[in-house]
Write a structure and sequence with these properties.
Elements: H1 4-18, E1 31-36, E2 41-45, H2 58-68, E3 74-80, H3 92-101, E4 107-111, E5 117-121, H4 122-125
Parallel strand pairs: 3-4
Antiparallel strand pairs: 1-2, 1-3, 4-5
The structure holds tetrahydrodeoxyuridine.
Residues 23, 26, 28, 30, 46, 48, 55, 57-59, 90-91, 94 line the site of tetrahydrodeoxyuridine.
Length: 136
């Protein structure tokens, strides 16, 4: 079980990587940090495109980077959106993708530049996940 100190550290990594976001259109940087089972942290940023619909969120980019490195299970996620004061949660598509690789009880923290932070779980973000039952 991840403690507050570890979650603070994971969030700091999400905040740091957010500066690498490619977001010239929205000007809304997002950084995501995934904690893998062995303690490795894999990060991702949002990557936009002039064809707006091709934009990929930070969370999914982190998942793709992790899978390419051989990591398939993540125990915690932190998301930083420094261009909003208040916390901004992951989009619907990312919630489903995250549920593929994370337990319902896995902690998720997201926060903007202000003091408010949301500490929740994958299961709260993506409830009634009956598709989990189809996985072996
Ligand atoms: N975005 C993310 O990267 N993750 C989220 O959870 C919400 C939205 C990105 C997509 C786009 O580049 C920008 O934020 C504004 O929507």
């Amino acid at each position: 079980m991840i403690d507050k100190e570890q979650m603070d550290k994971l969030f700091a990594q999400a905040r740091q990587i957010a500066d690498k976001a490619y977001a010239p259109y929205s000007k809304f940087r997002v950084g995501a940090a995934l904690l893998c089972e062995d303690g490795t942290v894999i990060t991702g940023v949002n990557v936009e495109n002039r064809s707006f619909g091709l934009t990929i969120c930070a969370e999914r980019n982190a998942v793709c980077a992790a899978v390419a490195k051989g990591y398939l299970r993540f125990t915690a996620l932190a998301i930083s959106t420094p261009d909003s004061v208040e916390p901004t949660g992951p989009c619907g598509a990312c919630r489903q993708v995250l549920s593929e690789f994370m337990a319902a009880a896995a902690p998720v923290r997201f926060a903007g530049s202000g003091a408010n932070q949301v500490n929740t779980t994958v299961g709260e973000l993506y409830p009634f996940d009956s598709l989990h039952e189809l996985k072996g």
